[in-house]
Amino acid sequence: MSFVLDKIGTLVTLSGAVEKKGRNIRSPDLGIIHDACLVIGGVGRKSKILFSGLRADLPAKFKKLKKISAGGKMVLPGFVDSHTHLVFAGDRSREFEMRLAGKTYQEIAAQGGGIINSVRATREISAAELYKLSHQRVQNFLKQGVTTIEIKTGYGLTFESEKKCLEVIKKLKNTQGTIVSTFLAAHAVPEEFKNRKEEYIREISIIWLPKLQKFCDYVDIFLDEGYFDQHDADILLKVAQELKVPTKIHADELALTGGTQTAIDFESLSADHLLKITDKEIAMLSESEVTATLLPTTAFFLKTDYAPARKLLDRGARVALATDFNPGTSPTQDITLVGILSALEMDMRIEEVIVGLTLNGAYALGLEKKKGALIEGFDSDFFLVEGENPAKLFYEFGSGRAPVKVHSSGEWISGD
Question: Where in the chain is the domain with CATH 2.30.40.10?
Fold first, then answer.
């Protein structure tokens, strides 16, 4: 049940980042230890790190445990992808062609494309087929060392379809890795409620959410131009607060519409996207506990300006990074690409990228006490990779650096 992961060449613990609560990160905060070992104890999802440090400092009480050699490889905390729309059906490659021909995201949506396109396909597919698609996507993430995955609904937009998506996520929770669920019925106004947006937001808030509360870990809303506004958010998030369900917000992506302010007012775990924020919102975020979750692959795919990561970081905001994996604006599961774009296009340092993809992703989910670092008491989520410099994770692009082994929830889940 317990073992020592021995002969680790480079162990990236993130001990300093934990102490600094994910802010103002510098290279020493990666807490790198050479010639290290980890002690793992516990069963299944209760598996924890009991010791993290130099091999020479291994406590005597652990020396008789079974030893597994890391073979001199580098060991890092499992990645935390805190923003995905992984449960969906259908294909939107035609919309990609439309954008290449000059159509905007909003114009495509107005013509019946966008989110509503995926809604039609997701409603039509059976729960069994949807689970099969979604399970394969989870496996794709796990093989990259992504051991914690947030999954949103939002492609159902009827009570039964949203419930179907949440039930698929619940089933995924019983497989490998750590899966958490977010209720995002406030993703778009469905065709059945055309021109009746307030009626829809009241129905999902007052009727759907209390019935589906047992399935969801978080509540989210797409607060942006052409979708939902601050008034809508007030209705939904007040109900979420009454039900004690933590909130997250799609904020200020397409236009500056008050998403950041709303996230702060409701003490949401995260404000996500933030492409259009100004110095005012940057200052507000830096003085709050709301995590700024940036999604560079979305900006890349939409050919728009990136979020102001450097300004946020320099002001002391906590910045997380995620894939935003979805069929329309970020059709990628490549966690390495997220890191590369963060470094090259958002001027983030490697240590900031690593913390953004691990500990700060955990902050965006309220899991910062057990995910995203390799120190005593944290969950035993980690991966082994060749090399000794963490920067190599984001140096080779196109094929990425696949982990040799991945460990999560007390088991080895990929590799040899």
Answer: 3-77+373-415
